[in-house]
Amino acid sequence: MPLGAAWYRLFPTDAPGYGFVAATIPELTIGVHEKARGLGVGGALLQVLLRAASEQGRPALSLSVDRKNPALRLYERYGFRDAGISQPHESSVTLIATCEPDTQTQH
């Protein structure tokens, strides 16, 4: 049984994703099987993708998450911060994390 999946991809300005920040910032997508949540799978996936993005010279990764989703705290532990483009009344918030070597160890 797969425990989860994660990837990032670039979106053009004229066809942005939900967590779009800029055409040069890849947007992260992650999902962890319900039975595997809380076991470190999400953190491991984030760590690998942040490292890969850094090695590829990506300046940052972005994502969108529901403000009530418990995964929000996971993202914050790995350096994701409010990108400042979501409105406080919106149910989701767009986050961004810089892809520097120290971002992989903030868990």
From TrEMBL:
InterPro entries: Acyl_CoA_acyltransferase, GNAT_dom. Signal peptide: none annotated. It comes from the Bacteria. Residues 1-100 form the N-acetyltransferase domain. This is N-acetyltransferase domain-containing protein. The lineage of its organism: Bacteria, Bacillati, Chloroflexota, Ktedonobacteria, Ktedonobacterales.
